[in-house]
Amino acid sequence: MSHHTAEAGFTSGYQTGTTGKESSGGDQGISSGGHSSTTRQKTVRDRNLGTIHGDLFTRPLNFDKRGELEGETSWTSGGVSGAPQEFRVNFVPVETFPETLIYQYHVQFEPDIDSKEFRQKILMQESVSKELGSFFIFDGMIMYLNREWDRERRLSGRHPQSGIPIEIRFKNSVCEGKPKQPHEPPQKTYLVPELCTPTGLTDDMRKDFRLMRALSHHTRLDPMKRAMSTKELINRLQASIECQALFDNWHFRLSDEIAGMIGRILPPERMLGSRNFEFTGQKAEWARELKRAGSFRTMHLSSWIIIYPRNEERMAVHFYERLGGLARQMDMGVAEPFAIPLDSTQPRDYQNGIQHALNTANNPNKPFCMIVILLPDDNKTRYDTLKKWLCTAYSIPSQCVQLKTLAGKPHAGGENKNFDSIVLKILLQMNCKMGGALWKVKIPLKETMIVGYDLYHDSTLKGKTVGACVSTYDKDFTEFFSQTRPHENPTQLGNNLMIFIRKALHRYQEANGQLPKRIILYRDGAGDGQIPYIRDQEVRLVKDACAEVVQQAGLPEDFKILLSFTIVTKKVNMRIFRVLQDTLINPDPGTVVDNTVTRPERFDFYLVPQYVNQGTVTPVCYNVVYDDTQLSPDRHQILAFKLSHMYFNWSGTIRVPAPCQYAHKLAFLVAQSIHQDPHEGLKDKLFFL
User: According to the UniProt record, where is the region Disordered (predicted)?
Assistant: First the structure.
């Protein structure tokens, strides 16, 4: 009897399929590169992969999850670094008989019926079910049976409403689903407003502290409560006669316990501050240590503008005086600002004041390096207008601050007890926007460029999405080059990705005098349905862009930029629990799981980079769809954890690699406020934080 692990919904995503034996998932898989679609499908047939469709394979041939390959270039099991630890997950082992056959049929109705609900009701009618049986899985088009059905045999039923005769036909030719192709017209869905009900939480509901606290009792279950709820579901299913009959018909049963495995906890990362001062945070957070360590690379406020409402001049003066005091503690120079009080807070008044300062006080030998704007409220129109103007017309980074953020509560006498902490965070953010770096993490990769890519839908351009790409161009991986472009379909996205990679390589070459030997690319904003397209199209386009730049550089024909292309998925159903004696707790930051619950057709792993003290932490899935860099799984896992420490807008780890989060912030700013390409002079700064 073989054991597979499925989610708490008890459906294993890779076990259903065409007629044939269930796959054990132990085959070597298909190389993620260098094969055409036809070659890949032929290789799949030759390997007898059973129910796993060839287009889903992304695991390289030299990555063996069963440990049966031999040779120095093969990888087995996954990573090895870190301390082994026992874990549980919210998956339930499903025990199946390996000789069980599952047959798949395409069901057609004549005359055709659009409603999925009516199709299901017809199959449950007595005249149909007595022939077909009651044990089948039907999604409205595809039916799964555990016995073979005569393809020539037809059944008859009646329409649930009109009563007209309906003929049912079965075909065992599989109708494969596929994502929308680049040249297909957009798929439209029409909604009738009178039949729709709004869902989710309104802004007023989110501001209701009592409501959100009550809601959190149901949504933020701790690991022990979440595991117990899954256990209760298993008990109910096993006690149900109807469910047991269903399980017996499909020849499987559920385990009594949730799945467990041995994972690993990577050691905490050490950061480098000013003068290479080393420090390590507590529970993946290091705000206190940062103030003592200083910044790894500091940019001075040698000439800057502050503009504010005249009636808030006292607060403005208090702000920049305290800013200077904190800057001296961080060894950061702050000159006296060029202050501009305003009698009105309309966007045009802010623009006129800044323009006047730039025209009259800007010294060519000592140009302004920062514009600080104190805003009376969170008015989006004012913010968008100013950000669009500043980010497209000038190469000077800007910092917007709401005055109510600085002000204290009325019941506290107008004093903000956290004033210094807030000003320090603003100061550090300004340092990054000017080109500074707050800390450095030791990443032992040479001549390497790390790239993050993400998407965000533009709020003003219907049907358009903004793609953002952020890449490193220095040996310390602390300097970033940013780009954005809008697209309407996958073809434009792929073409934009080629442009991004070409420009990123040129920027790297400009800074280092040579091209990188490898690119590590992290792609966010992709669903499972897009994986075949990304592997077959986007990977090829990135490789073509690399080859084009290499040719333009006049390098030898045998010089090749190696590529690792990884899809990062934040929205996953899996939850990981650490076993601590007789209880379950959240796993520590740095937890890696790369066995048992990973997919047999992928080179994937789950990483928990953050510390969570409420609810249950959600891991992040990394799926390496292409890799010719010869980096081992262990080095991929360590690198992903290191990069979660490199987001300068938060003194702690984040869920995804920092270049991905930077790309997300950039895409969000452009899609929500700027709506066009930022100024060229800002592209080598983190102006979008």
Answer: 1-49
